[in-house]
């Protein structure tokens, strides 16, 4: 073990560093769901049309998803602590701007700006954990905290969004980020240690342009597919552009001396399998929050706040089982946790296919949430660890960015695919069950949701198969590669 690793291991501020990173990660995860609850109020306040309401979410995800790889590289080269703090302060400013937005254009612009700074912040946060924790048991605990926040934060965001919207204003769903981000930046300046990649620090400009434009085209294409359908000319144009740009990106990365995303990062089977698994999980799990939230509010008549609290058992389950996963990971390795975890989560989703407008929360929703959360907690923590398996210090930031990029693209793909499936199933059911009279609409809509849940469950089972065949590291490999990122 090198002197630097020893120093880092003995560093008394490392748990404070984790606390700071945890705050920033929670803020980012909350922001992905907190605005969902606030959309109806913001629409009324700023006169936003139904056609444009999607931009409250999409402006953020487009900027975030398409700039993550660049954000990871900037952190590696300029210093992860420096970029982490810049990301926090920028996120604080963008959130404040959104909170006082007087027009829809300003709100959309502020959400895009949040995405830009989030793309700097997210890879730096994960890279900081990777280089700070070099002892296997401690690293497993650190990833356990990070995984619990990543898994449970979205449900907490729905609750916080419900409380703020109901008792203050939708504007506080954005404004609440500002003091949190500033506090995190102050703590980061004190407790986070600087780390950079060694060696050549040239930026791969052709790679930046093709990757950013390609990811933007792909994310926008999925968004258009959800709105206008898969055969819409604009959807197909963006998908075609994405294919051309991303193929060009891979060719460029194989040729240039200092690539934005070195192919060695994704061609190692454990990391490549982790990113593919992460993409599938993002696509499969997104439907649970989207369609179950709609079921609770539209079909069962829950208020936004009530609906947010209905997801609380999911967060609690994630947090409890994240602790279990972080204890077991150094003892048994990642695969024995991840594969059964995804199978469990898939079973939980299949249980949700039994809901109807006449079933209750306690009997049909709660058991599914508990089973899904226990399964997903066993996936999130090891998946974060295997995503960074054996990566060199030079590539820690970009490998971290790939974790978020794969989840982001998976989520975009998921919403487009599953929205289309749900809408088609709803229409078909309504046409063939006219005998239900007034009740045909709620039954048809719920049938659409359950059809999406079936496909989501199939995606999670497919993810389990991918991870079973790709992941071949055991607990001893996790020990051997600890500190690989400490440069």
Automatic annotation (TrEMBL):
Alphabetized UniProt keyword annotations: Cell membrane, Membrane, Transmembrane, Transmembrane helix, Transport
Subcellular location: Cell membrane
Residue span(s) of domain Major facilitator superfamily (MFS) profile: 17-475
Record's bilayer topology term: Multi-pass membrane protein
Parts of the chain that traverse the membrane: 18-39, 51-71, 83-109, 115-135, 142-163, 169-191, 203-222, 234-252, 273-296, 308-325, 337-356, 368-388, 409-431, 451-471
Cross-referenced InterPro entries: EmrB-like, MFS, MFS_dom, MFS_trans_sf
Signal peptide: none
Transcription regulation keyword on record: no
Statement: the UniProt record of this protein carries the keyword Zinc: no
Pfam (any one): MFS_1
Family annotation (PANTHER family): BLR6921 PROTEIN, MAJOR FACILITATOR SUPERFAMILY MULTIDRUG TRANSPORTER MFSC
Protein name as catalogued: Major facilitator superfamily protein
């Amino acid at each position: 073990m090198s002197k630097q690793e020893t120093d880092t291991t003995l560093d008394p501020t490392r748990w404070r560093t984790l606390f700071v990173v945890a705050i920033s990660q929670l803020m980012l995860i909350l922001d992905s769901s907190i605005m969902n609850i606030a959309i109806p109020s913001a629409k009324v306040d700023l006169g936003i049309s139904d056609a444009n309401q999607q931009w409250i979410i999409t402006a953020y995800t487009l900027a975030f998803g398409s700039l993550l790889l660049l954000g990871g590289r900037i952190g590696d080269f300029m210093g992860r602590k420096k970029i982490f703090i810049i990301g926090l302060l920028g996120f604080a400013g963008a959130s404040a701007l959104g909170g006082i937005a007087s027009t829809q254009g300003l709100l959309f612009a502020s959400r895009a700006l949040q995405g830009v700074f989030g793309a700097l912040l997210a890879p730096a946060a994960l890279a900081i954990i990777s280089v700070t924790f070099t002892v296997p048991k401690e690293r497993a605990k650190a990833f356990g905290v990070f995984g619990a926040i990543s898994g449970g934060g979205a449900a907490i965001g729905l609750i916080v969004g419900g409380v703020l919207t109901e008792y203050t204003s939708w504007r506080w769903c954005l404004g609440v980020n500002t003091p949190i981000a500033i506090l995190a930046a102050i703590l980061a300046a004190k407790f986070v240690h600087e780390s950079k990649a060694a060696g050549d620090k040239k930026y791969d400009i052709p790679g930046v342009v093709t990757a950013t434009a390609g990811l933007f085209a792909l994310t926008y294409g999925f968004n258009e597919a959800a709105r206008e359908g898969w055969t819409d000319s604009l959807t197909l144009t963006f998908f075609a552009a994405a294919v051309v740009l991303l193929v060009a990106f891979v060719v460029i990365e194989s040729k240039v001396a200092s690539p934005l995303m070195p192919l060695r990062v994704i061609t190692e089977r454990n990391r490549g399998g982790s990113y593919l698994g992460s993409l599938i999980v993002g696509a499969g799990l997104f439907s649970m929050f989207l369609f179950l939230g709609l079921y609770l509010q539209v079909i069962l008549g829950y208020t936004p706040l009530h609906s947010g609290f209905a997801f609380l058992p999911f967060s609690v389950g994630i947090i409890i089982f994240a602790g279990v996963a972080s204890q077991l990971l150094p003892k048994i390795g990642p695969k024995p946790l991840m594969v059964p975890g995804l199978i469990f989560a898939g079973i939980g989703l299949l249980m949700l296919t039994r809901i109807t407008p006449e079933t209750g929360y306690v009997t049909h929703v709660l058991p599914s949430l508990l089973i899904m959360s226990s399964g997903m907690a066993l996936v999130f923590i090891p998946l974060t660890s295997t995503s960074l398996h054996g990566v060199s210090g030079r590539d820690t930031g970009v490998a971290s960015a790939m974790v978020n990029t794969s989840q982001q693209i998976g989520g975009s793909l998921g919403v487009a695919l599953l929205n289309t499936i749900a809408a088609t199933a709803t229409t078909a059911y309504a046409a063939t069950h006219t005998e239900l009279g007034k009740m045909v609409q709620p039954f048809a809509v719920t049938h659409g949701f359950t059809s999406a849940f079936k496909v989501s469950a199939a995606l999670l089972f497919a993810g389990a198969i991918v991870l079973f065949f790709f992941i071949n590291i055991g607990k001893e490999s996790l020990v051997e590669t600890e500190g690989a990122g400490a440069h």
